[in-house]
Amino acid sequence: MAEKSLLDVQIVPATASDYDEVLSISDGIYNGVDYLPFRYHEWVRDPQRRMFVAKSGGKVVGFGSYLLVDGGVTAVVQGLRIAPWMRGYGIAGVMQQFCFDVLRSEHPEVPKVRLTRGEDPPAAKLNKYRLVHSKAVISVVIPNDQLEDTIKLLKQRVENVDGKAPVFSRSPEEVRSWFENSFNAEGLFPKGILVQDWLPLSNHRSNLELLLQRGVLWCYSNFLKSSTYNSLHANQEPTSASLPHSSSLPNTFITSDSTCEFLSLGTPPISVPLEDGMHRYDIDLFGIDPVAAKAHILHQLTEALRVLPRDGGMVCLLYVEEILRAELTQFCQGITPFLLVKEQLVLEMDI
User: Fold this and answer.
1) CDD domains, per this entry (predicted)?
2) Which bin fits 58, alpha (ψ -120 to 50), beta or left (φ > 0)?
3) Taking the domains of the chain in order of start, what are their residue ranges?
């Protein structure tokens, strides 16, 4: 039966008209916080992405895509899914091999593929791929009627920790300047990997525009270990308005051995199938300082509420270094956990 099913399957480029059928095979994926319903048409328009559907009997039974990143030398495989009634017949492997064949044919300059997975991937996959990096995942659900109280709770916990962690939202121009002039990749991305909303990128500067186009909120904090920090920020509240603009303070992003940097990237909240009014909000955190991490989470959530629909709730997904898991889980105590995955793995394979 498996052989017959594979013989009946055709793989063709996906189009905008396949949207409804792709969604029909995606019910329940990621426990109701699937990003694809929101991203699909955006992906169709992306010239750096190729999308494919598997069809059997004229109906969509599978979907997959890849995106060229890192200046065109890496392909990221995303969105793979198979219709529930067709799983177990090897269609996923056939689709993946089809993507690799297209890559080799159309982009022979691409030597490797990269992807993200949750915990406990199949042993066969680990035999083919090398593990590049992993992060802890902490997920909570915040219904609309609990948003205000949750922010108050987290604000109290941030204010009660020792030390100050001013967090500043950065404009696209300031982010570009930072990458060009003082970007400390080793300090924030020791593995050379920047994962944003499950999209695994290297810290190659060519990926910067891709992230800026996605409307990501960049937030940054920097602890100066000398008295210079206190003189610059004395009596200032941790808000973006309190930070001097980069034109008046050239070292807005200060990078040296005497500093402790922390960066967070927040994806704009997107509507998900979980229930009416529910949105997904991903916060990727880079750095290992727990005080800064807590302040960044509070700042990102506060900013997200500015653009969240009035009656909206959210599932918030936090991605942090494993060393911060215990403390940030405690920080989120009292907020309803959301069952998703506990770990995010970044895998690579040469093709």
Assistant:
1) NAT_SF
2) left
3) 2-110, 134-350
